[in-house]
Amino acid sequence: MTGRRRRRAPPEKDETEYVPGTLLDWSDRDLHWSSRELPCRYCGFPTHLRDSKRKPAHKVCAEDALAIQAAEAAAAYRARGHLH
Question: When you count CB atoms within 10 A of the terminal residue's CB, does the N or C end of the chain come out lower?
Answer without folding.
Answer: N
